[in-house]
Please model this.
Amino acid sequence: MVRGAGSGRAITALAWGACAMAVQAAEAPLSAPGNVAGLPSCVSADWIQFGRDEQSALLDEGDRRAVVAEMHSLYPVIERDGLPVSRIVLWRRSGGELVFVAAIDNPRQAGEACFIATVSAARFSMALPLLRKYLPQQATAAP
Model:
């Protein structure tokens, strides 16, 4: 866990490194939202596997930029560490929690991605509009 300076808010954050497996960019195109099967960690053999009952979608470029900007505002440590978030996945976990998964271009595998952080979407102003846009069947359950 990494904590922002004096904030007391915890986020799961991982740094650069090797990953065990990666999702091909062609399986999760940036231009079109859609279900994503899973993402490997950038630094360990961990893997976020999006379960059958769990909904996920890759945000388009404009929404990615907006989420990253708000993420930097809420969690300055992410911006301070200079991690170049190239993809954001919106994920409704089976327990109901709405999460943003921040991913980067895999430094070891061109054209692939790995995740560096997961952040609860509950504090983000755009969580509900993005839920309605990308996972409309899930929009009745608040973030």
About this structure: The chain has a mean pLDDT of 73. Residues 61-74 form the longest helix (14 residues).
